[in-house]
Records
---
Amino acid sequence: MKIIIIEDERNTAEDLKETILKVQPDAKIIAMLHSVKEALAYFAENEKPDLLFCDIQLGDGTSFEILNKAQIKTPVIFCTAYDEFALTAFEAHSIDYIMKPFDMATVGKALAKYRDLKDMLSPLNHNLILEILEKRNKSDDRMLVRYKDKIMPVAYTDIALFFLEHELVQLVTFDNKAYFVQKSLEELEKQMGDSFYRVNRQFLVNKAAIKDVSTSITRSITINLKFNFTNKPVVSKQKAASFLDWLT
C-alpha cells in the first residue's frame, strides 16, 4: 500500500508516519508533502498513491485545492482538529477522518475502513472507490464551502449563482450570503446540471434565481435576479438564443 501524507507541521507528519507503520507495517510512505505548492508540484511529476492522509488547513491553502487542481482520483483520509459540525461535511467527501491528536486506535480504524472498501472491490479499482464516494455526495445534493474557520455544507437548492471575481469563485445563496468554493466555473457548470446556465465568463446562474430579463438595442440580455445583488449578470449576444431556449 503506497501512502502519501500531506501535513504542514513536519513533526506531526513524522508522528503520523510512525503511527501508520506501526499499524500497517507493510505500508510504504512514498512522500510527505507540507504545502499546497509542494503537493501540486509533486503530483505534476509523480504517480498518485493508493491512499492519501491529508491535513485540511495548510499554511498556503487547503488540501481541497490540491485534490481539485491535481485531479486526484485517490481515496482520502482527512486529519483534522475541526469540530463535529464540520466533520459531518468532511465525512461525505472521504473514506474517513482522524482527529488530532491521533493515536494507533484512530489511525487503525481509518485504515480498516480503507481495507474493507478495498475488499469489496477486489481487485482494487480506485476509480470505483471514487465513484462510490461521488455518488454518495451527489445524493446529498450539497456542496462544501469555507466560512471563517469552518467548512460547511450548502444545499444545491439554496444556491442562486456562482461568480468569478479576482480569479476566485464565490457561491451566493438566495438569502444573499457569499462563500468561497474550491472549484472553477467550468467544473461547477458540469456539476450543477441543467438548472444552472453559464451566462458569461463570470456568472453561472440558477434558473430559480431569475426574476425576469431585459433586452437592449445591442441585443444583449440583462438578468434581473429575485434578490439584491451588486452586479446584474449580462448574457452575451452569442449566447442570447441558447439562453432563452434554456430559460423557457
---
Amino acid sequence: MSQVHPTTVIDPAASLGADVEIGPYNVIDAGVVIGDGTRIGSHNLITGATRIGRSNRIFHFCSIGEANQDKKYHGEDTLTEIGDRNTIREYVSINRGTVQGGGVTRVGDDNWIMAYVHIAHDCIAGNQNVFANNVTLAGHVLIGDWVTLGGFVGVHQFVKVGDHVMLGASSIVLQDVPPYVMIAGIPCAPHGINSRGLERRGFSAEAIAAIKRAYRTLYRSGLSLADARAEIERQAAEHPEVKPMADFLAANPRGVLR
C-alpha cells in the first residue's frame, strides 16, 4: 500500500504504483505516473507527462517535468521519462522535451544525481552515471553509460559524451567527448583514459592497454582526425573494447574535443 502525507496534493489523474511513499507538501499533477517502490521526500513538484519508474529515491525541493526553458516551446505535449533505481538529490530540475528535439527528456537507470543538477530539454542520459553537485546540461545533450561528471561541469547544447568518460570539476564541455576519455581544466583538455574506472568495472589489463593505444592514436600521434579515425577502426578489428570509440568517431559530425 502506498503512503502519502496528507499535505501532499495529488491530481486524481495521476497514477501511483504499489508501495510508493510520498512525504509532505508535494504537488503531483495529472498525467504523472510513478512506479512501484519509489520514495519521494518533501516540497517537490512533479508535473506534465512525466513517467517515473520503480524504486527511485527523490529527495526534496526538486522540479521534474516542468515546462522547459526553450523559447521554441509553446506548451506542446512532450515527455519526461525517468527509469528505475535513480537517486535524485535536493533542488534537481529536469525539464520536459520539445517537439523539435524529439519530444522527450530521458534519464535511464541507476543514476546518482546530486544537489542542484539541471537536466534541460531533450537531454538523454544513460545508466550508472554520477552527476556531482551543480552539473548543468544544456538542451539536446547525450550522456552515455558509466559517465562521471564532476561538480559544476557545464555541457554545451547538442554535445555527446561517450561511455566511461570522466569530466573533471568545473569543466565547460563544448565539443563531443569519445568513450573512456578523462577531461579536465579550463579550458578543458584530454588527460588520458579513465583507467581506474575501467578497472573497477572489470575491464582486463589487455583491454585497458588497447584503449590506451587508441587514445594515443587520437590525441598523441599527430595524425589528422580522419587518419586517426581510420587507424582506430583498424585497432577495433583486433580489440573489441576499442570498437565503442571507433563507432563514436565514425558517427560524429561535430568534431571531438582534441
---
Amino acid sequence: MSLSLDIDLLRSFVAIAETGVLGQAAARVGRTQSALSMQVQRLEGVVEQPLLFRSARGVSLTAAGERLLVQARQLLRLHDEALAELRGGQLSGVLRFGCPDDYAVVFLPHLLRGFARLNPRVQLEVVCAPTPRLRELLARHAIDLALVSVMGEGQEAGVIRREPLVWVGPRGVDVAVLDPLPLALGAPDAFDHVAPRQALEAAGRAYRLVCASSSLGGLVAMARSGQAITVLTRTAVPEDLQVLQAGERLPELPTVGIALAFDRGEVQGLAAAFAAHVQQELPLA
C-alpha cells in the first residue's frame, strides 16, 4: 500500500507544534481536540514514529517530530504558493486590518502567516483595539476591515465562529468567594465589560470594579495576581489561569459571535481576498 503525507495532517501537526497546546491548535484548524488527536495518530502511523510527547502541561516534539516540522513547513509553503499561482496573479498593495486583542493572541499569527504565504507582495498593517474602537476606525476609513465581536441571538449575518465568554481566575485561589466580587474588565463600552456587569446585576451579586482596561495583558496580569477575576473568550484563556464555572456565585455569560466588518459596502480587492482567507481559516465552532 502506498503511503503519503496528507496536507491536512501536516497543517494540523504544524499547528500543534507552534501552539504547544491541543486546544489552541484545534481552534486554529477548526477541529475538535479528539479529531486533532486522531490526525496525529494517523500521521504517526504514516511515518511509523512517535511525533509528540504528551503531558498535563501540553505537548512537545520528539526528535522525529522536530525533523518533520522543518519538512512540513516547507511542504505547506510550496503547496500554498502553487495554489495561489494557479488561482491567478498575485495581489499587491497595503491592507489595513483591525482585531481585538484576545482574537489577535489566538488567531492572528496563523491568519497573517497563511495570507503572507499566499500573497507575499501584500503589506498588512494591523491595529489591535476593542470592537467599539475598531468600528470607529472603520467609520473613518482608517482601516479596511476588522474582526469584531457581535452579540444577540441573531448575531448578524456573517458570523464566522462563536466563542463563549468565561470567568477567569488564578489556579489555587478561590477569588469568586470574595464579596463584593473584584473584577478586571475590558473597555467600558466593550462586550466583555458590559455583559458580565449586566449578568451580575441581574443575579443580585455585588461586585467592585478593580480595573477597566482595553489591554489584554493588563487584565491577565490582574487575574494572575489573584486580586480580581476577569472575563475572556474561552480560546484566549492562558494555560496558567483557569476557567471558573458558572453557578451559584457566578452567573452564566453569553456567547459572542466573531464577524468581519468593512469600511465600505462593496468589498473588493485586497479586503475581499483577506476576508475569504479569514472565513476559510476560522470555521464555525
